[in-house]
Amino acid sequence: MTYDSNWLDLWKKRFGDPLLDVKTFRLNPDQTLAEIGNKPVSVNKVQGPYMGLLLYRPEGWAEVLRIRAQMTPSESDRMHMTGTLQKVIEAGVVPVKVVPYDAE
């Protein structure tokens, strides 16, 4: 998964207050994803926004399918990608690896 490591200046230009739009995105020391998609109380909970670019390995996709199979159809229909990724993190079966993108 890619994320923008230099996100804050752009979000300040776009929204004034970056907390109006951004969601949590926190990394573990090993550069795997620790948290995504929640409402942050400060910019310290955001190490960069999720850019929407993902590569699933077979074991990662199998975990997504396993998690979604446990949901009711209504829950599955309402689930968004960041919510799905947070459930993968919480399951702890496969790590979500991240790659910073720096356009500058």
Report on the architecture of this protein.
It is a single chain. This protein is α+β, with helices and mostly antiparallel strands. It has one domain (2-101). The chain has four helices and four strands. The longest helix is centred in the middle third of the chain and has 12 residues, at 58-69. The mean pLDDT is 91.
For this entry, give a set of tags.
4 strands, 36% helix, 4 helices, alpha+beta, two-stranded parallel sheet, two-stranded antiparallel sheet, 104 residues
Poorly predicted sequence stretches spanning 5 or more consecutive residues: none
Oligomer: single chain
In round numbers, the mean pLDDT is 91
Percentage of residues in helical conformation: 25-40%
> End-to-end distance, in Å?
19 Å
What number of structural domains do the residues give?
Answer: 1
Shape: globular
Kindly provide the radius of gyration, computed on alpha-carbon positions and rounded to a whole number of angstroms: 14 Å
Class by SSE composition: alpha+beta
- Portion of residues in beta strands equals 5-15%
For the secondary structure, the number of strands is 4
The side-by-side strand order for the widest beta sheet comes to 1-4
Order of helices and strands: EHEEHHHE
Helix count equals: 4
Main sheet summary: 2 strands, parallel
